C-alpha cells in the first residue's frame, strides 16, 4: 500500500497509508446506494402517500422542476455536508475506514470540502472516468478535487497499537486539567501524539518545545514552567483529550 508523507507545522513528516482506488470506489458506491435509497423513499412517500402528483398537476413546468430540485436537494449536498460534520468522512468512507485530510496534516476545513464538492462535477463526468484517471495517474491517488483543495484520502486500517493512536490509558479517577482540549479534533490530537512520540524517541527538545508552544497558542493557555514542564504539559493534554472525548480501549 502506497504512503504519503505529510509535513506538519512542526516540520515532522508522518507517513499515512493512501486509500486505494478500489476503496474509494467502494465508498462512492455505498454513498450512491444511500442516495438512491433516499430518492426512492422520498418519491414513494410523496407520490403514493401524499399524492404529490395531484398537487403538481396544476403547476407549470418550471415550478414542477423546482419541486423536484427541493426534494432531491439533500442528494446534491450529501458529500460536502457529511464530510464537514464527520471530519472528512461520509457513511461510505466510514464503512471503508478512509478519511479526507489536508496534505499539511490538519483537519480539512469546510472550504476544502466545498472545493472537492465543486470539482466533483468534473471528476464524475464521463461516468466518473475523469476522476478515475486522475486517481490512477496522480502520485497520491488524488482526484482533481483533492489536488485543487490540497487534500488526500488516507486509510485508517493501519494495524497499530495504542502508542500510535490518540488513545491513552487513563485511570477511572483521573482528574483533567485543561477542558480547552475539546477544541481539538481527533486528527489534531493524532498529529500531536505522533510528533511527541517521535520527538521523545530522539530526545528532540526543540520539537517538543515548539509543539508545546503551538498547543498553548491554539488553546490560549499560559503554563508556569516551574509547575509543569513542556513534556508534562503535552502528556496532560493528550490524557485530557481522551478523558473529555471518551476515547478508551
Verbal overview:
With 249 residues, this protein is mainly alpha-helical. The longest helix is centred in the N-terminal third of the chain and has 29 residues, at 21-49. β1 and β2 form a beta hairpin. The model is unreliable at 159-166 (pLDDT under 50). A two-stranded antiparallel ribbon has the order 1-2. It has a two-stranded antiparallel ribbon with strand order 3-4. It has ten helices and four strands.
List the total number of helices.
Answer: 10
List how many beta strands DSSP finds: 4
- Structure class: mainly alpha
| Shape field | elongated
Strand arrangement, largest sheet? Answer: 1-2
Global Rg:
23 Å
Euclidean distance between termini CA atoms: 27 Å
Please write the string of helix (H) and strand (E) elements. Answer: EEHHHHEHHHEHHH
Helix content: 55-70%
Q: Give the integer mean of the pLDDT values.
A: 83
Beta percentage is 5-15%
Low-confidence stretches: 159-166
Q: Characterize the biggest β-sheet.
A: 2 strands, antiparallel
